[in-house]
Amino acid sequence: MSSKRTNPNFESLYSNLANTWWQHQVLRDRRPEYRALVESWESVERARDAMHGWWTGRSSEIR
């Protein structure tokens, strides 16, 4: 038995990921509503991170 095992699915998974990322880039450039969706999601994440930082700062003050 060979100790070196390779996963044949790994390469196809990797290429699928690359294709998905590329399609995401193309969609973001070509479709204004998709771009707006991505930007609003990114702003939601930024707001969540800011809120989390504010809340952890507050909770350390309270203690």
Structure write-up:
With 63 residues, this protein is mainly α. It has a domain at 32-63. 86% of the residues lie in helices and 0% in strands. The protein has 2 helices and no strands. It has helices at 8-30, 32-62. The chain is flat. The chain starts with 7 loop residues before the first helix and ends with a helix. The relative contact order is 0.06. The mean pLDDT is 75.
Shape: flat
Class from helix and strand fractions: mainly alpha
As a percent range, the share of helical residues equals over 70%
Number of helices: 2
Q: Beta fraction of the residues? A: under 5%
* Poorly predicted segments: none
N-to-C terminal Cα separation, in Å?
59 Å
Give the H and E element order: HH
- Number of β-strand runs: 0
Overall mean pLDDT: 75
Most strands sheet: none
Topology:
Layout: H1 8-30, H2 32-62
Helix pairs in contact: 1-2
Summarize the structure.
This protein is 86% helix and 0% strand. The chain is mostly helical and 63 residues long.
